[in-house]
Amino acid sequence: HKAQVEVKVRSQLQDEAVEMWKQEQQTPTGKGGKPLGLCTICNTISSSHLQKTGKYVPLSYSPLAKHVNGGRRLADFNAEKSWLTDGEATVLIDYTLEMAGQNYFPFSRRRLKEHADEIIQAKLG
């Protein structure tokens, strides 16, 4: 669940960086009237997030460069391949945590898969 939150935060920061890049293309704020580069934008967004939250989330400019040139983020691509929606995954995670809290461990991978399959079957009908 923690990794899921980190991916979501990174995705939001990447969205901010893309928006900042688009604004820079319209009204450059860099030296000599040039737009700021993606590396500078990534550092700015990461530093701003650190000041707001106390957590540093580094952003790499190379995936962002692909994104601003029409590519998709890896997280978006992977989400499209998933059998479970974010909400369904959260239900599955909560169920697993609940089983851990009730000392139903060792909780087998087979039982986890059975529960995931039940969610998918309910969705598909």
List keywords for this structure.
single chain; about 120 residues; mainly alpha; about 70% helix; elongated
Q: Strands, helices and their partners?
A:
Layout (H helix, E strand, L loop, with lengths): L1 H25 L11 H16 L7 H8 L5 H8 L4 H16 L7 H16 L1
Give the helix tally: 6
Average predicted local confidence, pLDDT: 86
Strand segment count: 0
Please state roughly what percent of the residues sit in beta strands, choosing from under 5%, 5-15%, 15-25%, 25-35%, 35-45% or over 45%.
under 5%
Describe this structure in words.
The structure is a single chain. The protein is 71% helix and 0% strand. With 125 residues, it is mainly α.
In short:
The chain has 125 residues and is mainly alpha-helical. The chain has helices at residues 2-26, 38-53, 61-68, 74-81, 86-101, 109-124.
